[in-house]
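Inputs:
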Amino acid sequence: MKPACPSTVSADAAAPLPCHSKRGFLKELLGVGASATVIPIMPVQAAMGDQPPRRPGIPGKRFGMLIDLRKCIGCQACTVSCSVENQPPIGQFRTTVLQYEIDKEDGSAPAMVSLPRLCNHCDNPPCVPVCPVQATFQREDGMVLVDNERCVACGYCVQACPYDARFINHETQTADKCTFCEHRLEAGLLPACVESCVGGARVIGDLLDADSEINRQMEQHKDDIKVLKPGMNTSPRVFYIGLPDEFVNEVEGQASVRLVADY
Amino acid sequence: MQITELLTPQYEAAWLPWAVQYFFLVGMSTGAALMAAWGAWSRPGSAAARALPLAIVLLLVTVLTAPVSLLADLHQPARFWHFYAYFTPWSWMSLGAILLPLFVILALGLCLAWWRGSLRWMRILAVPLAISAASIVVYTGAEISVVRARPLWNNPWVPVNLALTAWLAAVGAALLLTLWVPAGREVAVRAWLGKLGLFLSLALLAVASVWVASGHVMQTPSFLEALDLYADYPIWRISLWLSVILGAFVLALWLRPGLWLHSRIMGIVLGVSACAAAWGFRWALFMGVQGVPKYGAGLYVYHIPLGGDGLMGIIGVFGLCVAVLTMVLWALEHKGSKRVLS
């Protein structure tokens, strides 16, 4: 994964799914034909599963988050501060830190992996086009949000998210997810999880600003930047430093204690 | 290297057993619609035409109850009008919100035409109804199979299996209806149902074989995930073998009509088994697959709640089917003309 300097972001954002490239090819062909014959061709209406147009956001920005796993101690301060800030019901989380024990066969002491998880605010979010009422949408600043007054809570977006980042909120009975604390960002504050992180493991910033802290750190660690499930072609905008290869796609291991919502 | 999860949240199923009920009932209703359309266009006196009352009763019951389960699967059912206020043509579910009411209206229209004994109107309505039934099969299948996050859904065999099992259940349910609808007293009609059932069972066997063969050769993600589940979890092993046994039992009975054609009990057993196979497939596809973590290890254990979102919901929908069926049978017995009944 290259650092997300502006050119990389836009190049990555434009990277189409295989099925889209054929359509793109046909559209281009049509476009060439149209310009040759001077026949105006209206752009084709969105096809099944296409991303709808983004809605206005904070102008000129594209937010992303970088999580340095070397600095995460698994204290769950982010989980707690997010829950205090955003008030999800007990047992449901917009962000949380998954914790794993790794036992090596050489008899060395077990290693611990703490993996903070939240919505990836993907550049190609699979949760958005499936929504049957356009309640979930993406803004031009990249944030994927839910209008929970429009949401019918069909749960389709929960199914479509490859990262289990969404849930049906037991109290509002609508789809819920991390918003990058957009209400705080608009007020010039950091997201609750970033502000409370004791190790400074979470960095949020503008991927379009070449001088932003996130881009600076991404450039510095460009060989060790990974995203979750790159094969899903979602182009996540939450990046990790120090993510072991065994954790990139899915965890093959032993399931243990789970937090079960008892409501 | 051994990885052990120490702390991860439990992710709940977002689609509840209501979804199982909806896909079961709406699938059966497409089968009933196709049977009814076939019957309407068949030569009067043929088995398909004489089976019409069975198809019509099944169509009426399922087409009225399926949308109820669908509505209940929304966590905000009162907001269903948002589907029409914010139409979203690039989402299969949104298309479904248009296609389903159209199907219901056409199905009710055909039932009405049959009630009035108008073969002309039945034939006029049968054509768009068959197309509409196909549209329901396409949209319900596509809705599931476009979800790339779940490999067990994201493959072309899921819509085919949904359709074939649904139609098998429709044949099974029609066989059950022969207990109450006079048209089912004719052996020729039951034998015709048996032929349909046999064809569908063989088609399912073929599709399952192609899925296994292509999965084995091409190492498709859905096949690999199924293999992992089979290897790691007794519940998936038990489910698979149960469905194989049930499928083999149903197929064996279709192949030996002598065993059930003249036996009430065996007819019931066969009808219930065909329906149970289709329902069980949907339970595994929805509730089972939602328990497979997209990222984490192990399975998310689904504890079925006893209330409306769980057991009562399941029983309630079947209860609704029984209630509608009772009313339809009452109407047929007391209000129907002799022409309609036979």
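The CA atoms of residues 91 and 257 of chain A lie 14 Å apart. Flag for discussion at group meeting.
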